[in-house]
Amino acid sequence: MEDHRALFLRAAEHAAAYRRSLPGRPVAVPIDQAAVVDAFAGPLPRTPSPPEQVLAELLAAAEPGLVAGAGPRYFGFVVGGALPAATAAEIVATGWDQLAFNTVTSPAAMAAETVAGGWLKELLGIPGSASVGFVTGCQAANTVGLAAARHKVLADVGWDVERRGLPGAPAIRVIAGAERHGTVDRSLRLLGLGTDAVQPVAADPNGAIDLGSLRAVLRSGARGPTIVCLQAGNVNTGACDPLREACDLVHRHGGWVHVDGAFGLWAAASPRTRHLVDGLAAADSWACDGHKWLNLPYDSAFAFCARPDTHAAAMSYTAAYLVGSGGEPVGADLTAESSRRARGFAVWAGLRELGRDGVAALVDRCCALARRFADGLTAAGFEVANDVVLNQVLVGFGDDARTDRVVAAVQADGTCWAGGTTWRGRRLMRISVSNATTTEADVDRSIAAIVRLAA
Ligand SMILES: *Cc1c(COP(=O)(O)O)cnc(C)c1O
């Protein structure tokens, strides 16, 4: 057996050097995609190549097309930067090459998921009896949560959706906020419920659902299979739906509550922001990302379900050759994947590295830095268009065309990176502070660059 020590060390050394370079490198500058493809291009090799040479070629080809999204001045897309222990865990997880299917294929991977899953529930205030599927992203977590919902609301009216499918099934009402994330719609498409099934609930001025509107929508239809999608953390404003009152209303109508809390659920991890997601424990399923605010490596997210039996009934399958399946649901029983990467190691390592206090401090720091952005840009004469309740800031620089020009100039400048969005019919800059390494100095430097470019 060959010893790949030098090869693997070179890879790890490169990763470390890249991370060290993050604070100093341009965050993302416009680049010709065709040139990046050219660097990778070439005919499919006919013969094998030495691994050392392949690694060197890969490092050289990728370098110009890398985005410093893990760096401290990247404020796009609610993106974090993978924590050191979590990154190291990911490196060894790749070395271990575990099949995270069940306890036969990897006892260690399942143990990491079990223990980290318990820690996640504790941090987020989700009941300890809930099941947790370790999935690829909040998109997948929404799909799993809504699949569990679909199972239960149809089982309640005597319909076995896993066996019979949806043809001829009783109709399901899906109620969701007008400001829901686009992935909820895609999950509904994949589950055969379709986006036409959605009855929208009006949003309040900061993008959380309006309770009066939810009450009216619930009352407007006949009782029957009902799924309601709530949200913790509006992707533009950070607003969280009033979960306690909404769960209570929906349950009185016999519905299932799914909470899309990709980043906003982390408000629960700090005593300062916990009130924003008060009552979340009453929901039936929850979706939350690890690779956003928790600063875990991609791809990492969690699908929680208050009813483990329902969760497993919607997702698991068995086959004669699958040794170890059919017992307590684990791993693949709780997700839509079969063979899976062992992402639980990085989750365990990240939580172990931060601890309860570290997670709370991360949330608090990002929220404080978001307010620093808002205050700094307001003082410079620009308009902050949202109520900065969490880590999201929306900024207007005049009319839509001018705002778009400022966003483009900031992206081309490379000091920091922020995206553009449309909110309430207006073009705005969207600043999301989610990285564990961002400092006040990073924010001040970014504000100075934005103000300079806007001028
Ligand atoms: C990011 C996000 C998603 C999708 O999460 P992925 O990890 O990209 O799959 C869903 N809902 C909300 C509110 C989000 O912010």
Feature tags:
455 residues; Aspartate Aminotransferase, domain 2; seven-stranded mixed sheet; four-stranded antiparallel sheet; 14 helices; globular; binds pyridoxal-5'-phosphate
- Give the number of DSSP strands: 11
**Small molecules bound:** pyridoxal-5'-phosphate
CA-based gyration radius: 23 Å
Proportion of residues in extended strands: 5-15%
Share of residues in helices: 40-55%
- Unreliable parts: none
Span between termini? 62 Å
**What's the mean pLDDT score?**
96
Q: How is the main sheet built?
A: 7 strands, mixed
Give the CATH level 1 class of one domain: Alpha Beta
User: At the third CATH level, what is the topology name of one domain?
Assistant: Aspartate Aminotransferase, domain 2
The gross shape turns out to be globular
Annotation field: number of helices? 14
- Class from helix and strand fractions: alpha/beta
Folded structure, characterized:
This protein has helices at 5-21, 33-40, 51-62, 84-96, 107-124, 138-155, 161-164, 182-190, 211-220, 243-252, 308-315, 344-379, 400-413, 440-454, and strands at 131-135, 173-177, 198-201, 226-231, 256-260, 285-289, 301-305, 383-384, 392-396, 419-423, 426-432. The mean pLDDT is 96. It is built from 14 helices and eleven strands. Helix content is 42%, strand content 12%. It is α/β, with parallel strands linked by helices. Strands 1-7-6-5-4-2-3 form a seven-stranded mixed beta sheet, sandwiched between helices. A four-stranded antiparallel beta sheet has the order 8-9-11-10. Helix 4 (84-96) packs antiparallel against helix 12, helix 6 (138-155) crosses helix 11 and helix 9 packs parallel to helix 10 (243-252). It has a domain at 89-349: Aspartate Aminotransferase, domain 2 (3-Layer(aba) Sandwich). Bound molecules: pyridoxal-5'-phosphate. Residues 78, 137-139, 181, 183, 231, 233, 235, 260, 262-263, 289, 301 line the site of pyridoxal-5'-phosphate.
